[in-house]
Amino acid sequence: MKLTHKKNENPDVNLDVNAILIFIQQILFFLCGKTKASVELAFSTILASMALACQDMYDVEIVDGVIVPVSHFHISLARSGSKKTTVYRLAMAQIHQIEHELAEAFSASLDEYKRQYVLWDEECKSLKKSLQKAIRQKDGIEEARRELEECLKNEPVKPVRVHLTVTDPTPEALLQEMADYSCMGITSDEGSALFESIMRRKIAIVNSLWCGDNYRVSRVSTGSFEIKDPRLGMLLMIQPEPHDNILKSLANKTRATGGDARILRMDLTLLTRLIDINELVPGNQSDLDKFYSIQKKHIAAGIERRKKSEPRICMVFAPDAKTRLHDFDRHVNHLMQPEKKLYHYNDWGARFTEHTARIAAVMQLFITPDSTVITLETLEAALLISEWYLNHFIVKMDAVRGPSYTEIVLEWFENNLVKNGSYDFLRREIMQKIHLPLRKKANLMPILEQLSDEKKVQLWEDDSGTHYVRYLASKMTPSELDAKLNILSGRPAYHSSGSIFSSIPLKE
């Protein structure tokens, strides 16, 4: 039996075990041993829960004066049976426990508030009557007014409900929730419908909140309000098929807004080699308990900081790490130039450094919870992690993007070069034979003019007014074209003393 198709393996989508620092390896060893989940799925989920715990207490400085939140948007894709729910519950167990305790405390505070409000309200009513009587009698007015003003100042403060997570919000409900308490995580282990809602409806809202920008809302029904000092994280677990269907239908829209470039997306089905649990440093229950205690510490600190309206603590890079990040940033910017690897993925590439800084800050806060300095070792791991997420982004975008019109035109030139027998193509023949939407002059000419600006083609006409396009970006040399034409005509490939063809630009 002969296979007619083999799966193209892409090792770039696999996670390098060196990206997982020892502290996290120990947690994953115990967690994956307990759940039988893949290391990659557990790692992505754990990292998301770490970011949720830190986002309200810390920021990170990328370069001098450029400070950003440490919030993450994580989407983990895995098929049914991959232990998504099991891993999600363990990673989020401490956060949900704290949320339960906060809900109970809020309930008790609300009952006390209601009792105090009734007493306060009755006292105010009584003092209002006293003031009215004093005004009628024109006696003791100032004293009555002073007592009422003092009472009004002592109105009981309604307790704030602290929501650490929300599972299935509409965009409007999310804004309303964050108006009351502006630090939150959108989390779900069955997030297909939620993902579609977020990406289809007002993705700009989520983008702004990811950046930590204040957000002003104005509605006829609810009036105007402002979300101040927001921090929003995300942890969604989705099956690949519904996710990909949503992505295909919305890819152009969401990429244009920068929505996809803010997501750390991992698709377990793309991996060609899973990390073996035995490659990790062994850990036990005490390592998981330590992880939970650090989560609790950071969450409690964030809540207390917000109560006191204090500034966040800013994480900074050690000098050697700062230099390394700067150098890597320049390298990524180089790869985003035309014809380079990241040219078509410059939306994610432009955020590569920021993603890396956010990831590094969160990991450092669990390795050294009381330090604000990100070490070079942590940064190196974060760079590998960012590259891993970027490679998954590339695969997903390639699947939904398809070739651009510019790529279609260049590919057509390359594929028809031998058939044309020259680097000079008649423009009218291009319009007769190329990809159907490009047969209209209004569609084709902007592409040819762009390629001309990029010096990949040259547009010219002969003395009779006939228009030509000279293909300058060919991978085939004139001598190779000469040899292939000889073979087509039945002559030996080596027949000819030299090529008569030229791909050199014409001079004016």
Give an overview in words.
With 508 residues, the chain is an alpha/beta fold. The protein has two domains: 12-104 and 160-401, Rossmann fold (3-Layer(aba) Sandwich); 405-488, Arc Repressor Mutant, subunit A. The protein contains 18 helices and 14 strands. The protein has helices at residues 22-35, 39-54, 84-137, 141-153, 171-180, 192-200, 203-211, 240-257, 285-308, 319-335, 346-349, 352-367, 376-401, 405-415, 417-420, 427-433, 441-453, 478-488, and strands at residues 58-63, 66-69, 73-77, 165-166, 183-188, 215-219, 223-227, 231-238, 264-267, 313-317, 373-374, 424-426, 457-461, 467-471. The strands form four sheets. A five-stranded parallel beta sheet has the order 4-5-8-3-9, sandwiched between helices. It has a four-stranded mixed beta sheet with strand order 2-1-10-11. The protein is elongated, with a radius of gyration of 31 Å. Mean pLDDT is 89; it is low at 1-7.
Q: Topology of this structure?
A:
Elements: H1 22-35, H2 39-54, E1 58-63, E2 66-69, E3 73-77, H3 84-137, H4 141-153, E4 165-166, H5 171-180, E5 183-188, H6 192-200, H7 203-211, E6 215-219, E7 223-227, E8 231-238, H8 240-257, E9 264-267, H9 285-308, E10 313-317, H10 319-335, H11 346-349, H12 352-367, E11 373-374, H13 376-401, H14 405-415, H15 417-420, E12 424-426, H16 427-433, H17 441-453, E13 457-461, E14 467-471, H18 478-488
Parallel strand pairs: 1-10, 3-8, 3-9, 4-5, 5-8, 10-11
Antiparallel strand pairs: 1-2, 6-7, 12-14, 13-14
